[in-house]
Amino acid sequence: MRFPLSMTASLAGYIAKNKLRPKPEWQKTIKPGSDSSNPFHIVYTHTNAARKPHPMINRRFPLVLMLEPLHACNLTCTGCGRIREYESTITQRLSLEQCLAASDECGAPVVSICGGEPMLYPEIGALVKALAARNKTIYLCTNGMFIKKKLKEFTPNEKFFFNVHLDGMEKNHDIAVEREGVFREAVEGLRLAKQAGFKVCTNTTVYKETDINEIEELFEYLSQFNVDGHMISPAYGYSAVNDREIFMTRDDIYEKFKNIDKLAERFPLSTTPTYLEFLQGKRDYPCTAWGNPTYNVKGWKGPCYLITDAHYKTFEELMTRTPWESYGAGNDPRCDHCMVHCGFEPSAALGINSKFGDTFKLMSWAFR
Ligand code: SF4
Ligand code: SF4
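# iron/sulfur cluster complex -> structure
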């Protein structure tokens, strides 16, 4: 990933400061109650007594805010949980003030603007501008179809990235998003953004059917545009998505990612090398879902970006009322095959279960 070292340094400083002096108000553990701020039920909670406590359970703080200003989208991708789960509120959106208040409330140094399709948010330009003024690193996650039309609403900034979703080469990407021509428009948007001086990375979800050779072909093809980085993560089996066949078990994921090092050597992967080792089964991480909290029209989504047992009015409620130790593989069957970046990249970034040589690995990755 090509990003300024000052960004890495400031993130490292933020992590060190919060590990040393975590905010006490976020470390309390309050039993999830039937109060009005939490109208949803915890559907399944069971704590595995044999499980070791999460090493950071009393030092909880966020790294990346997943901000969903709206859930409306121009596409209906096969594997998308969002447009299905939030069907009843699909016409609602957060105000600009609510978006900024959420960012201020949690204070995460990185904001990933997702959705739905965030380029459909009428104040998307103003939102990015206001987050940039707060010195946030911003990823605008988009299917790429509106970049061409809306590019003039943005100003290039070394901490602002268009993050274009591409799941394969033209034929397979268009099948996944269920519409012909999407790949071409996304690539054209990406090309124009790079030409105009913007940072652009891509985001690829790996499904059971994904051929990693095709992902290599995709990255090879994209290298002509001098793309700044590639994120890659296994898909999660949303209960809201009917097609269970497309999602992978942990063993499927290990098999799929076993040769990922080759891609990491050739292309600027933004995925941390230690998280890639987790995907290969070479190390284990507990889920650190509070590292990537999600805020949307229903509030702070708990426990994570993927599963929803509650929406809370405040970030502090999410941090203190979520029964964190009831989640993760072995505790909740919905977590058993989950290895997605929003639960486990924070574990890698926080250096949980670190091994000798990790610092060197991370430094070489950052310098590369
Ligand atoms: S573009 Fe994104 S939000 Fe829209 S349907 Fe596809 S995955 Fe869902
Ligand atoms: S393991 Fe996955 S599904 Fe379970 S809480 Fe963590 S991120 Fe969410």
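# post-check
The mean pLDDT is 90.
The pocket of iron/sulfur cluster (ligand 1) is lined by residues 73, 75-77, 80, 82-83, 115-117, 143, 177 (CB under 6 Å).
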